[in-house]
Amino acid sequence: MITIYDIARITGFSPPTISKALNGTGGLSAATRTLILQAAKDLGYTPNMNARALSTNRSHLIGVIYEDHYMLKGFKHPLFSDILNNFRKVIEIAGYDLLFLSRNLGSRRVSYLEHSNYRKVDGILVMNPVPGDPDVLELASFDRPCVSANEPIPGICTVVTENRVAAEAAVDYLVSLGHRSIAHICGPRNLSAPAARERFEGYRAALEKHGIRYDENLVEESPFWHSEGGYEAARRLFYRTRDFTALFASNDTLAFGIKEAVEERGLSIPDDISLIGFDGDESGMYTSPALTTMWQNTEEIGSRAAMLLLQKFAGEDVPELIKIPARLLERGSCRKVATKFEHGL
Amino acid sequence: MITIYDIARITGFSPPTISKALNGTGGLSAATRTLILQAAKDLGYTPNMNARALSTNRSHLIGVIYEDHYMLKGFKHPLFSDILNNFRKVIEIAGYDLLFLSRNLGSRRVSYLEHSNYRKVDGILVMNPVPGDPDVLELASFDRPCVSANEPIPGICTVVTENRVAAEAAVDYLVSLGHRSIAHICGPRNLSAPAARERFEGYRAALEKHGIRYDENLVEESPFWHSEGGYEAARRLFYRTRDFTALFASNDTLAFGIKEAVEERGLSIPDDISLIGFDGDESGMYTSPALTTMWQNTEEIGSRAAMLLLQKFAGEDVPELIKIPARLLERGSCRKVATKFEHGL
DNA sequence: CTGAAAGCGCTTACAG
DNA sequence: CTGAAAGCGCTTACAG
Hints:
Rossmann fold, homodimer, 6-stranded parallel β-sheet, 6-stranded mixed β-sheet, 14 strands, alpha/beta, 345 residues
């Protein structure tokens, strides 16, 4: 491996001068600068990031916190790879690399904060923390910038889908198709992550807006975000009532389970029940009918989170919370129903 | 941030002694060792990995090559996050961290090799390279260990699903259900990655084994691995012939597209056509019927790849190619048909 | 515009 | 069993 000392020896300049030329810092003459750059190129010089990081105390590394935890029996972040990929595109062209932040340091168990100090990461992206994890909350005191994707954390700048508004739009859509009896199966509302609560609020707001009485009999909660949870919740719902023509599911995975329960009862989607999900999971394209859903803009979430981090690196002020609109993805699981008024004609 | 100098000052030992105690190297007395370790703990010492990496020339970093490229219109690695998660679990408890290897170095465009030298990664995992990418092939000359998951690369140790055998098993299964006319829609066979070719070979081998004549009219190739490709290929197949009762799809995503084409023709799965896929994608659980498929053991692929890398770090010899068996995942898209013989009874 | 000196925090021979 | 010296490859004041 060739170093700046090699370039210094060959060009006749001193190592600090080589360093300045390579980094574009310090006022060198254009001539020496191009000379040095050329030599570096000819020699196939690659900087040693460990040395650079040691002296500058900046690693050009961004730590990612992503736990593939199964505490909640199968909970997984469905949008993870999309968000991460889009985040990565932005930070890479800015010269940063992505590092998974673990809680191991050799065989020792450590916090994310310790690991961040160990690697001297310049910033952190929080993706899929264990809900309420103290090791994550502690990150707010990290002396370098953090952002969170889709998961509000006190003291950390967050980019998140506009859950409440999008849920309201989902129900608006069902109403526009003529539905008046709309059930809701929500995700776990007791978690620190507010997605399930916000979507539920959006549901209620939409009903109210359209003058539909809120009926708690039409709402069922799944303690988990997975399809089995959706299935069980739908069964509980059916046990109580069959008095609805549409159902809004708090996410797509729940919707898949709900669909099973509906079919098990001999009912058809969308003929008997219109079903709308949330996320825009690709899987929903392959069910029959394909699942209509509120699509989370993972590209925007990922790239905005990255841009925020870069802005923070540049010392700019950024808002604490950024909401990204979702979009309706009309596929085949909802249908227009005759309203009572039309019936009467 | 506290350093070994701080610990040295406080305990009265020299920095090298502190280093030896911390690393468990060098013959220190048990007393000083515990004394130093205790002091380190009390002070909340975290080593600076940049300094350590600079002096040892080892970073305890493993580079991951994963390109989310869309060259082939929508090609994505469906098993990516599963394999990566399982890989990560193993290498993290061994004290390594995962770094995404990009082809950027600041604003400069570089090869993976250069980036690896820049970060001094101790090893590399190749996950989803652009097929035939010279920057990947070049990695075989990297002076540190590399492994590849699911993609054979000359000179690099690879862990891959036993495609040929698993494809044969898929067709065996169809035969066991009484099918004798079995179509095959294969993925792109012209790529450097041999998966489509190997699965096609398995298909032929199974036919031969069961004394079924190979009929090229029953085989159609999709130029891409995505569902649109499967859809189009199935339409071409139907245009030519309807003379089959079962179909083996080279992967699940193709199968989803095939399913659409089948239904579009007014045929039902599995009543008219039994369909089997390959991958074990979770999405297949949510279609109706759920997709029967050959499941790739992503946990095994990821963890084996990690173990191989660790073995290489330890200087052990490892095989160049490791094949992981797939498993049949019986869901609902295949059914038993009456054989001619049974008919006669 | 360029360079000599010192430092970033650790480890590796080597000596005693 | 412990420490003084030198080095890993770079950068940052500072001086000229």
